[in-house]
Amino acid sequence: MIPIFVVVLQGSQRFEALKSDLNRQAIPFVVEQAVNGSYIKEEQLEFLFDRKGTFARLGYDISKSLLGCALSHRAVYLKGYDCGLDWIVVLEEDVRLQENFLANLNLLLNNFQSDCPLIIQLFTRGERFIKKKSIQEIVYERYIFQFASPPGQTAGYLINRKALHLALADEVILGAPDWPSWAAQVDFFGTFPFLVLENGEGSSIGPSPLSRKGYWIRNLEKCLGFHFFRFHAHYASSRIYLKTEIKPLMLRILWTIKGKPTFPSEDRNGLWLV
Asked: How far is CA 246 from its chain centroid?
């Protein structure tokens, strides 16, 4: 049985629906109490994250709520690594399981080898560029594919032991809270239809404080090299910088030029084909 960890904020009522899904499908799980960012003391912050490194990735100062989210997942990684198994599942408290969750989970794993760091997203509504040539139908209307760059969001995913090792090698949070800088060394895959669903209602994190204007000014700074000049020391290498910052920007531009193709093609809110 693959260990299933559920990140739950103490006192939250959002877990009740997922708990019902897990019990109805007779799926054992472990609750990991989430780190409540509002309780993090100011004097602790410098030991928990790289302030300039996270600003470089986000474009704004990381909030305590976002930091708490990143620390919660890191705590799961530590426990998951101690299990000594090849894979673990991480779910956030507000997701809902699709039917036959375990059967589809095992179907996915039968199509993957664990000889490199891997994460398999079970859902994402963040940035989601996928490689068109990687799409495979493994059974009727069940697909797997590879992401062209790390997708946004950590609502539900499989992570293997080699990826856990990378995650735990970083002593502080460096980069975006969903996928910090270590994730640039991981191959990301996904499945469609998704195995879990999530709508984000009632989240304590809130919307990004970066305006649309601020977003494009930041992208312009990347294109002109100003961003690299200011922040390159907070990336492991120039290659990681290009993969983390420049590649997603180029993918978005090319995707827009090509008319924003999606998978499935009839779903305009689907995955972004490149």
From this structure: 18
Q: What is the pLDDT of residue 188?
A: 97
Can you tell me the distance from the alpha carbon of 141 to that of 1, in angstroms, rounded to the nearest whole number?
Answer: 25
Q: What is each CA distance from 73 to 6, 8, 140, 167, 269, in whole angstroms?
A: 10, 11, 33, 10, 27
Tell whether 252 is covered by a domain: no
φ, ψ for residue 233 (rounded to 5)?
Answer: -65, -15
In a domain, 230, yes or no: no
| 57, two tokens | 């990735």
C-alpha torsion sign, points 257, 259, 263, 269: positive
Chain-centroid distance of CA 122 in Å reads 10
**Counted domains in the chain:** 1
DSSP for 62-126, written as a single string: PPHHHHHHHHHHHHHHHHHHHHT-SEEEEEETT-EEPTTHHHHHHHHHTT---SS-EEEES---S
Task: Mention every residue, 6+ apart, whose C-beta is less than 8 A from residue 21.
Answer: 96, 97, 101
Q: 57: closest CA among 187, 236, 260?
A: 236
Average pLDDT, 10 consecutive residues per value, the chain (274 residues): 94 92 97 92 88 91 91 95 95 96 95 89 92 95 95 94 95 86 94 90 68 91 95 91 93 94 90 95
Query: Of 12, 159, 154, nearest to 78 (Cα)?
Result: 159
Domain assignment of residue 181, given as a range: 4-197
